[in-house]
Amino acid sequence: MSSWFEEHKENISKALENDPLHVALDRLTSTFSSARIAAIKKLPYYQYYRKRAREVKSWSIDHLPELIKSVKEAVESLSGVFYLAKDAEECRNYVLKICLDHGAKLIVKSKSMVTEEIFLNDLLMDRGIEVVETDLGEWIVQLRGEKPSHIVGPALHVPREEVAKLFSKITGRLLPSDNIPLLTAVAREKLREKFIKADIGISGANVIAAETGTVFILENEGNARFATNAPPVHICISGIEKLVPTVEDAMLISRVITPNATG
To answer: Residue 29 is part of which domain span?
Structure first.
């Protein structure tokens, strides 16, 4: 029996015995489901948009070479730099080069699943660069030394009682777990300092319009706006599957993504 299987089996046993984890999952999974259903009901012609979005994505996957060429030309026409990495290692090293060339000491990030997949943070921090996740859930799991547990809710496994303990530790004052506005205010205060001092901002992309090089980033916390605009340098890291032909297509995809995220 493989060591991986034994480790996985052990993790399952720990999770089954973790009562706070059960509480957190019960609270949030029901919220996600009901919010999604409610949002879809409020969106006229949702099924039509969904069908059209699927058609756009299918066409885009079949025409990736021309979309890559188009977005490269668009980005460069706007004085941006486009780089197509062949694999995770090449992407990590290119981002590291940009950071070193700019003498970056502090990087702020908005949520990016692709940077999680390529272990970008590990490389940058190994080179002495401070990397701060600014999505609230991502920041919580980063402070706890964990990995995100869900693409929408990175910290959904962390009950608010544990968040209160964590924030109490970093602020040096006792914070109540039932005062959610206070906990979020603490996060804003701490992260605002990082936005102001950051040398580089890194983001992912929800969808990219190849024709114009327009990057669509969907959020509900406001951190992505600061992470991409406050620092003097912005690096967008995205898979090529995010490319669609036009801004209209990107708007369509965005309209479908939104209710299927947090509602």
So the answer is: 3-260
